[in-house]
Amino acid sequence: MADRMFPHVGVEVVGSPAVRLLRQNRPGDMLECTNRLTFEGLEDDEIEVLEMIRTFDRTGGVLPEPEFVRLSVTAAGCPGPAYALVRERRVVSFVWGDTRFFPAFQFSLPGVQVREGVGAVLRELASVLDEDDLCRWFGRSNSWIGGLKPAELVGCAPTMVLQAARVDRFIFRG
Asked: Any idea what DSSP says for residue 6?
């Protein structure tokens, strides 16, 4: 079955024009707005979250936790699988405000089935990176894969991404 990616879901940034667009239920316009956002006056963690959203938008967007749970319930019939994936660190996510977000690059439809390439990379890096750093690793350029971001490549070249993870694990361990 062909993969389908999830639509982009925006994040509220206090004090930015994106807030108004989100409240008007226009997440696509919010993304356009964040692409023009100068980040002036924002805290470092706010900038980092916006940059992650930009990165992950190019690879399918992000799912807020309620949507992630809803999709997993649809696929499995109960919410347990969604929470097990998080607890067992079989997916990457990040928290903004009081909401956890799941980058969509790591899933194949139907439901929220984790791509095998993602699982292999997570198993490789879980001992050297915490949850936030794992999410950042997928969203940052990686010299071992030609400067591409692992999130951009894991769906079509999972072996290359896994090799990059192995090298990085070796480096992180020192």
From this structure: P
Question: What's the distance, CA 28 to chain centroid?
Answer: 17
Do 30 and 89 lie in one domain? The reply is yes
18 vs 72: CA distance, rounded Å = 28
Query: What are the start-end ranges of the E strands in the chain?
Result: 62-64, 94-96, 99-103, 107-108, 113-114
The pTM assigned to this predicted structure is 0.74
- Are residues 100 and 151 both part of a single domain? no
Would you state the pLDDT for residue 118? Answer: 94
40 is a domain residue: yes
Mean pLDDT, to the nearest integer, of 78-84?
Answer: 67
129-146 pLDDT, tens digit per residue, is 998 899 999 999 999 999
* Whether residue 99 has pLDDT greater than 60: yes
DSSP letters, 13-79, are: -TTSHHHHHHHTT-HHHHHHHHHH---TT--HHHHHHHHHHHHHHTTT-EEEHHHHHHHHHHHHSSS
Q: Are the beta carbons of 82 and 53 closer than 8 angstroms?
A: no
Range of the domain at 63: 17-114
